[in-house]
Amino acid sequence: MKKVIQRVFPSDQLHERLADLRDLLKKYFLVVRSHDDQGVIAPYTASFYPKISLAYKEVNEIHINIDSPPDNDVFYDWRGSVYRDDDAGEPCFVVYVNERFAGLYLLRLRSLYATDWSHDWECVRLAREVIPRLISALGLKPLTRAEREKIYKTYKTLKSNPLRITVGGDPEFEMWRGSTLVSADDYLNMGGSIGTDGARSQVELRPAPGTPAQVVRNLRELIKEFARRFPKYDLDAAGHRYPCGGHIHIGGIPDREPPGELLELLDDFVGKPSLPLSGEARGEYRRLSAWEDKPWGFEYRTPPAAVFSNPRVARTVLKLARNLVTKFYSGRALEYNDPPGVEDYIRVGGLTEREAAYLVEFFRQGVPRSLRIRAAWGTFAPEEGLAISFRDDWLPERKRLFRKVLVKNLRRGEIVLYGLASSRGFVATIPGVPGAAVLDDPPYAPVNGQGRVWVGLPWRLRMEEGVDETLLREAAEVVARYCRQFFRVSRRAR
Q1: Angle between helices 396-409 and 469-484 (to 10 degrees)
Q2: Which residue, 291, 192, 175, 191, is CA-closest to 244?
Q3: What is the C-alpha to C-alpha distance for residues 89 and 108, in angstroms, rounded to an integer?
Q4: Which of 7, 169, 204, 469 can pair with 197 through a Cys bridge, CB separation 3.0 to 4.6 Å?
Q5: Is the CB of residue 12 less than 8 Å from the CB of residue 118?
């Protein structure tokens, strides 16, 4: 089946009684719409009862009072999802009619997004009083013919002034030491080029944007830096334990938000074929047309981390995304097979024959149990060493103290420190913890079949405020001595 995608200027959508307001609005706006479900914020638009999501920055308020208010409240009905953000929001004038919220005027885009002014004749009657006074308060001038032609020309084709589309990404990976999964927030903060994602369990790499080749080089350097900082650990893109996204950043587009047609194009060439590579943990994040607004453009959130699992696929996917966005904004109609084949990736996606064949085959492979990153990106394999993971609730400073003591005393091995419920009392699964009784029936075997040592500790040592640090340090030393018997070489014996 063939499909055609083309960027076109939005047309009027005259639901309900909007036709009765068109004469007042079309002098100042190119497009007038009512009950718009597209969710896209466009320039030079007057839209009533729109389904939008917007962070706004209030620059000023406009208050318009009418002597004959409507008989019902439908005029003020609103289904937009908006919130105030005075740091990064879209600059707006907030419009009030008879001291009730009635809409937002977006200064940068010269667009009005308002409540249900066109619902019925009573609402239209009120709106015909409001609109001239609003136009006057905003100081708007009718659009000239030259202005209209210039806007249409800019919107429909950008061939004479090509866009400089940039790409980037912030792929998420699980952090492993051998067969032990660890939580990234035990080692990293949220900020920086190597940090944790919002859930804090995954490692998120944030290479600087640029061309596809530049992004791949920047990402390789971050992976090398990770290897230097954590030589005994690896990253994994499979995402079976934690959800791992392969978000693609798109910068330099002229729209405030990505048009639905552009998202459909990205879905067809990238999203749909890559979604089956999502790990078992991706859950609700596994969906098409997922995106987030960003100051530099938007983040396409549909792909999984697998599209960053090696430099070849990362460079190819980033090149494909940039080419699709650039061609979409050229204004040309893009015709292709649905689903796309190799020839479509070449003709529409702008890939070479070799790149297209490789990418199509990569998408077909399915998600493996593991997608280790360091070897795939040409960095040295993790050293054998000490892996410490924490289960259940811990105060961050308690994690740091126990980790510091264990690292000082042990050179290698896998240790899991987990929590015992407060209802059990002051107990531990190993002897010698100051003041703690030994639990007779621990929930985990002290040593499992892979040689991993499990130690359960009481709630008080993990979470209670005000515990003496000397007691905590002594408990950590006890854990280190207990674990040492299972590992052949201690750090002190070197």
Answers
A1: 40
A2: 175
A3: 11
A4: 204
A5: no
Q: Cα separation of 462 and 473, whole Å?
A: 12
How far apart, in whole angstroms, are the C-alpha atoms of residue 456 and residue 126?
69
Chain centre to alpha carbon of residue 34: 30
What is the chain's length?
Answer: 494
The token pair at 86 is: 């005075």
Measured CA distances, 389 to 263, 310, 475 (Å): 40, 27, 17
pTM score over 0.85:
no
Q: How many CB atoms lie within 10 A of CB 267?
A: 19
SS3 sequence, 120-157? CHHHHHHHHHHHHHHHHHHCCCCCCHHHHHHHHHHHHC
Specify whether the CB–CB gap between 274 and 314 falls below 8 A.
no
CB distance 199 to 244 below 8 Å: no
Non-local (6+) Cβ contacts of 434 within 8 A are 471, 474, 475, 478
Strand partners, 172: 204
Over its length of 494 residues, how does the chain's per-residue pLDDT go in tens digits? 778 776 666 667 888 889 899 889 999 998 898 988 766 677 889 999 988 877 888 899 999 998 876 667 899 999 888 888 887 788 999 999 999 999 999 998 899 999 999 999 899 999 999 999 999 999 999 999 888 887 776 665 444 445 678 999 999 999 998 888 999 988 998 888 999 987 789 999 999 999 999 999 999 999 999 998 998 899 999 999 999 999 999 998 877 678 888 999 999 999 999 999 999 999 889 999 999 988 888 999 999 999 999 999 999 999 999 999 998 887 778 999 999 999 999 999 999 999 999 999 999 988 778 888 998 898 766 655 778 888 889 998 999 999 999 988 887 788 889 999 999 999 999 999 999 999 988 988 887 655 678 999 999 999 999 999 999 999 999 999 998 887 754 333 33
